[in-house]
Amino acid sequence: MNTYLRVLGFAKPLGTRVPQYLFFSILYSVFSLGRLALLMPVLKLLFTPDKVSADIVTEPTFDINSPGQYFSDLFNYYFTPYIKQGPLEALEFVCVILFASAMLSSLFRYLSDLILAKISASTHYNLQNATFGKINALELGFFTNERKGDIMSRMTNDMVQVNSTIVSSMTVIFREPILIISYFGALIAISPKLTILALLVLPLSGGLIASIAKRLKKKAKKSQESAGKVTVILEEALSGMRVIKAFNATSFILEKFARETRRFKRLTISIARRRELASPLSEFLGIVIIIGIVLYGGKIILTEQEVGLSGDSFITFIAIFSQILTPAKNISKSMTNIQRGIAAAERIFEVVDSDPKVKDKEGAIKLEAFNNSVEFDNISFAYTDDLVLRNINLKVGKGQTLALVGPSGGGKSTLADLVPRFYDPVDGSVKIDGLPLTAYETDSLRNHMGIVTQESILFNDTVYNNISFGIQNTTQEEVEKAAKIANAHEFIEGLEDGYRTMIGERGSKLSGGQRQRLSIARAVLKNPDILILDEATSALDSESEKLVQNALNNLMKNRTAIVIAHRLSTVQHADKIAVVQNGQIAEEGTHDELMAKNGVYSKLIAMQSL
């Protein structure tokens, strides 16, 4: 119930739309009932025209004790002039009223459904944006532990399921109960005895349906999880298609996909067995009740045990009661949908409720300018339990370049990721201008940083938008200047639409070197105080690497730079070189100082010289 109420909290603004929906639902039920109630005068007019003339009355007065009789007398009062003109004219009058009632009933149903569609769309919009906002607020470690495909499934499949729940729940809460209550009110007015019989038997049907719906939730959650796994496999297959084909692993990935889809199919069928049972079961039980009413009601009429229950009123009673089955069936179907929706909502709220480990603390200040240094003060860090960085102490002054070198897996990229607060250390602190990063607002901190990663992260957009990504009010001249510094302008001009060329998903229409140069151009355009270059030239050919390295050297002048490199020739002129090995600083100094030590650094240089 808490999950359901929480979902409704995203259906804002409910305060104005629910009263509108309720109003239109009431009018819909009134005119739907009126359409059925007109059966009685039509039947009486067709089969007992002589008796109709006897129903002519004077203008009635309302009696709280017999409202049904009041509306019947009111109809007969206005019906009188047409009866005097003849049965055909009376029939025409009833048909006109019937037409108007049907038209208004359809109109108010449309209006209520339209309000419901707005509530549903608002819920989907608010919940989807809240979830996506939380995803973007979470630290990078969250995405290391979670599968991307499963997150995508929660944002798509689960979101659709939750959205259908809102539609179902609104009808269950408002419209269908209003219809049932109004129908039962009419039934009581026609025959209290028959209505009591129906009321005694109908709850049995509701109890059975509720029991079926209750069992659906657990299986529904397993079904949504399985759908998420299918999305995971699909996303991995699409991303790794080159590897799948290169290693002749098509049959393996097909079997893996088929295995999960078989599980999803079994769960879907299992859910369908229960879900689809609800509607025919309620229909069958309704028919059984109608049979009982026909038997009992027929006996009353034949033996004249109840005054006022004539053949035409009995048929009208049956017609109205049969209409109760439709909203009752809709309620039973909605109950099963709601259980599936709640299971999906719980999966979504697992993401929404995730607490970001990296967040601004209360009283955090804005970093207006970078003035002095970046310092790693006794840093230790772990992704899970085992430390990957231990007691790191480093300092780089403003305008200096710190190079991080060493064997792969030593912790160089992890150390660099601590500077923009992608993660927070478990011990110690990273400081800027003497204050720990936690003292600053994270957004203002990152505004002073430019990052070029080993893997080029590009978007399925134009060259221009990829270079100016995240930077407001850029000009063509500024973008072109950044591209020239990154040695990218020449190849961009050669593209079909120049800077307006779409580059495909992850820049798939470009070569590896071209993608990397666009990433560098993006960092150049930001013109940051602190540069973080994680193997920034690794994807370039020798000629491009030389040109881009020269550009980067110019860019790094008067800026603080943290450079991660495996090609040690590119960092020999760094102000400070730190050799990171097994999560610790093995050596530290300039190129000449480290070569003189004849330690790990000199051995790495020797190996690359071979």
Automatic annotation (TrEMBL):
Gene Ontology MF, one: ABC-type oligopeptide transporter activity
Keyword tRNA-binding: no
One Pfam family of this chain: ABC_tran
PROSITE patterns: ABC_TM1F (PS50929), ABC_TRANSPORTER_1 (PS00211), ABC_TRANSPORTER_2 (PS50893)
Occurrences of domain ABC transporter (ranges): 374-607
Source species, domain of life: Bacteria
Alphabetical keyword list: ATP-binding, Membrane, Nucleotide-binding, Transmembrane, Transmembrane helix
SUPFAM superfamilies: ABC transporter transmembrane region, P-loop containing nucleoside triphosphate hydrolases
One CC-aspect GO term: plasma membrane
Residue span(s) of domain ABC transmembrane type-1: 22-340
Ranges that cross the membrane: 21-43, 90-111, 172-190, 196-213, 284-302
UniProt membrane topology term: Multi-pass membrane protein
Protein location: Cell membrane
Entry protein name: Antibiotic ABC transporter ATP-binding protein
Originating species: Fulvitalea axinellae
Organism ancestry: Bacteria, Pseudomonadati, Bacteroidota, Cytophagia, Cytophagales
